[in-house]
Amino acid sequence: MAEAPPATAGPTPGPAVHELLAAYRNGSLTPGAHVRRVLDLVAAHGDDGTWISVDAEAALARAAELEATPGAADLPLYGVPFGVKDSIDVVGWPTTLACPSYAYEPRETAPAVQRLLDAGAICLGKTNLDQFATGLNGTRTPYTVPRSVFGGDLVSGGSSSGSARAVALGEVPFAVATDTAGSGRVPAALNGVLGYKPSRGLVSTVGLVPACRSLDCLSLVVADPADLRTVLDLMVGVDERDAWSRPYARLDVDEHALVVGLPDEDGLTFFGDEATADAHTRARAVVAGLFRTTATSLAPFLAAGELLYSGPWVAERLVEFGDFLSVAHDDVVPVVGDIIRGGARFAATDVFRAQYRLAELKAEVGRLFASMDVLVLPTIGTTFTVPEVLADPVGTNTVLGHYTHFGNLLDLCAAAVPAGTTADGRPASLMVLGPALSDDAVLAVATRLAAHLPTSAPIEESR
Q1: Which residues form the Amidase domain (predicted)?
Q2: Does one domain contain both 227 and 365?
Q3: pLDDT of residue 8
Q4: β-strands 412-421, 194-197: how paired?
Q5: Most buried among 10, 261, 426, 433, using CB within 10 Å?
């Protein structure tokens, strides 16, 4: 039995992709040896709510196959283990969406995941999530409820809870997640790692069980910003089976010429959490020291965010899961079932009214981006403990998504970047947002911020 690792009070990432590749190529490590180490680490962590399924035999067999294949060592992800959120199809693992009675065996691996496998990566297993990807807190699962790696019974965030934890615990250097309302960014923020939501349509969503089909994105969680660019480039590609797919041309970005929008401080809220407000103020000062900045309004962004759950988009979940819910309602987490059923209250007229309002807000946001390249704001305004979320599951969830809900509605791309901790040791995170197809600008800003912001120590202590 593997010895239990020490408790963490923050992320403890393992080797990055480029470090693993270097070790494999200089002969100091093999994929098989590393996979065995990872499996021992997963076993030592125990049933902590990170994974729904791990297939040790398949992972070791894949490592052995790669080691025996001539030329495989030149693949860009040769022998690199990773995790996949259990709402995304991977042949060999059931897709459960954290609802065992919903589970099915996929006949095809999601194309974006297949690109990673073709590049030499090793899928370790499927990660935990808020059931049916409905939630931003991580507690809505019939499996073990995960906690943030920062301890204190803090929620892990969701819905991609397991993907963020697997990276933060050093079990994998990256994990594939999803993001509809912040599901990839909020858990990254709450576990002190990076989360990236690409522009809608750059990464195929074929093989993803949709939450809101018109908004869903596959996203990435990583510990090292260099890995973000490496893995994303492999996943991007037009897919004619994805109705929202669109091409992307890399941009030549001069990061020193970029203008960063900072919202008026009066427009920010931290829900009474002064420690998180102070951490954000310190991080914001770092932004101002690195980039040209301009003041901007956050009002149209927040107005769009209010449309997501108060508007008709919630009915998309009813389209996808309504039939299952009608026959298996006892198998669904109660708050998830209530949210899905709530989509029935909207009429066609509500859809059009919301679309008209969203179009107005998109135009207003577009005018704001004419004077800035990206916008930087908090990823989360406060944190909650598991008991606090269970006592008020809807209210706390809404607060966690305050700064993320509008991202896909407004067709933005976004990165969550660790920004140290609060004075009492809770995670802080900055979010970089840009218009659709400005991914290279967002990544440039996020990468530069990651190099200058601490990952898990208060900013003033790192200077």
Answers
A1: 45-443
A2: no
A3: 63
A4: antiparallel
A5: 433
User: How far apart, in whole angstroms, are the C-alpha atoms of residue 93 and residue 109?
Assistant: 10
CATH code where residue 332 lies: 3.90.1300.10
Q: Are residues 228 and 314 in the same domain?
A: no
Q: Respond yes or no: is residue 85 known to be catalytic.
A: yes
Distance between CA 94 and CA 102 in Å, rounded? 10
Structure token pair of residue 312: 């008709």
- Do residue 212 and residue 312 come from a single domain? no
301 plus 209 within the same structural domain = no
Per the structure, the complete domain to which residue 70 belongs is given by 17-235
Beta strand 292-296 pairing with 259-263: parallel
Residue 414 lies in a domain: yes
Q: Which pLDDT score is estimated for 417?
A: 98
pTM above 0.85, yes or no: yes
Catalytic residue among 85, 126, 156, 199: 85
- Give CA 191 to chain center in angstroms: 11
161, 183, 199, 438: the catalytic one is 183
Number of domains making up the chain: 2
pLDDT at 359: 98
In a shared domain, residues 265 and 165 = no
Among 182, 201, 235, give the residue marking a domain's end.
Answer: 235
pLDDT the model gives residue 462: 34
R_g of the chain, CA atoms, integer Å: 21
Q: Is residue 328 located within the same domain as residue 440?
A: yes
* pLDDT mean by block of 10 residues, the chain; 463 residues: 56 97 98 98 98 98 98 98 98 98 98 98 98 98 98 98 98 98 98 98 98 96 96 97 94 93 95 98 97 98 93 93 94 96 95 97 98 98 98 98 98 98 97 98 97 66 33
Note if 126 is an active site residue. Answer: no
**Strand order through the sheet with 122-127:** 51-54, 122-127, 81-85, 174-179, 217-222, 194-197, 412-421, 427-435, 374-378, 259-263, 292-296
